[in-house]
Design brief:
alpha/beta, Rossmann fold, 2 domains, two-stranded antiparallel ribbon, 9 strands, globular, binds zinc ion
Length: 328
């Protein structure tokens, strides 16, 4: 599978796609380190990967000169890779991390992130569940029976959006595997309205309090991001959230990995076909979507109370949390 078309002649920073296209077509005697799309040596793979990310930014107009970028970081491979690249190409980026309170996991990934940001001179802002909501994920899970990913789906997004105020774009580390999973999860759940929010740049409606999200790794397989992070020696751990294995996403991920093995290109096909449908979905759901503001915290909400406030309200009694603290 080749990835470089004539339409993507673009230069961002040191990456010039025309040059990369020529050099990859040449015979290379170096040993291949990865063979996802084609066998590539270390230096050609790195150039291939960076070119594809640069092309995605260009093609979908993810970043303009006026943008102030915050990168949603977890300390994992995907967000560290995009933090590194956006800092290298555009400079002046800020890292924003959420500490859910997952002992033995998040404290370690945050340590990696702090070290990385320190070495790269990137400002880092960390918001925690404990400080914002009065309880950590660990405390919540000890007292209530709820799927951890459901809590994080709501509360992480909430803190990322409110923590990104003042910036014009939130860049996330979502890769091709993540997007194929999200598309299929929404299809399986019959939720096309949510699927309309996917794509390389998110959102169906504009609101001054809603910071658009961009996904520059949109066309990179997870394997490729992992290889890139490994080869670039970012000094991070490659472990997964201990709660990830019990989520619906994990089932869809395993299912898609199985299909990809049987039928290579499956994930890519899901995403490319979805992108053909997306303009229609956005049009259809923009008409019915309206953003109001939460009566409790003032953040964007689809009805009177935002999802985070209603979630926190429902947990408050069991967790003995007195008030919703908005302290960020
Ligand atoms: Zn090579
Ligand atoms: Zn609220």
């Amino acid at each position: 599978m080749t990835f470089l078309g004539n339409q993507i002649a673009v230069a961002i920073g040191p990456v010039v796609l025309d040059d990369v296209e020529r050099s990859i077509k040449k015979r290379c005697s170096e040993p291949a380190v990865i063979s996802v799309r084609q066998p590539l040596c270390k230096s050609h793979f790195i150039r291939d990967f960076e070119s594809r990310v640069a092309a995605t930014i260009k093609k979908y107009k993810l970043i303009s000169k006026k943008d102030r970028i915050v990168v949603a970081c977890s300390g994992g491979k995907d967000s560290t890779a995009i933090l590194y690249l956006l800092n290298k190409w555009f400079g002046n980026v800020t890292a924003l991390a959420i500490d859910e309170g997952i002992p033995g996991y998040r404290n370690l990934t945050l340590e990696d992130l702090r070290n990385f940001c320190g070495r790269s001179d990137i400002p880092l802002k960390v918001l925690s569940y404990k400080k914002a909501f009065g309880f950590s994920l660990h405390e919540a899970l000890r007292k209530v029976t709820v799927l951890p990913c459901n809590i994080c789906g709501t509360l992480r997004r909430y803190l990322l959006n409110s923590g990104a105020r003042g910036f014009t774009k939130i860049a996330t580390g979502h890769n091709l595997d993540d997007e194929a999973q999200s598309i299929m999860m929404n299809f399986f759940k019959g939720n096309l309205g949510l699927a309309a929010r996917l794509g390389p740049i998110s959102g169906v409606v504009e609101d001054e309090k809603f910071v658009p999200r961009i996904k520059p790794l949109y066309f990179c397989y997870e394997k490729e991001v992992a290889a890139y992070a490994f080869l670039k020696k970012f000094g991070i751990r490659f472990n997964e959230c201990p709660h990830a294995s019990v989520s619906f996403r994990a089932s869809v991920r395993d299912f898609l990995n199985g299909l990809e093995q049987e039928q290579p290109g499956t994930k890519q096909n899901i995403v490319s076909n979805f992108l053909r449908l997306l303009p229609k979905l956005k049009k259809r759901y923009a008409a019915s979507a309206s953003i109001s503001h939460c009566s409790t915290c003032g953040e964007p909400a689809s009805n009177g109370l935002c999802k985070a406030c209603s979630y926190v309200n429902s947990l408050r009694e069991s967790l003995q949390v007195k008030s919703f603290r908005k302290s960020f």
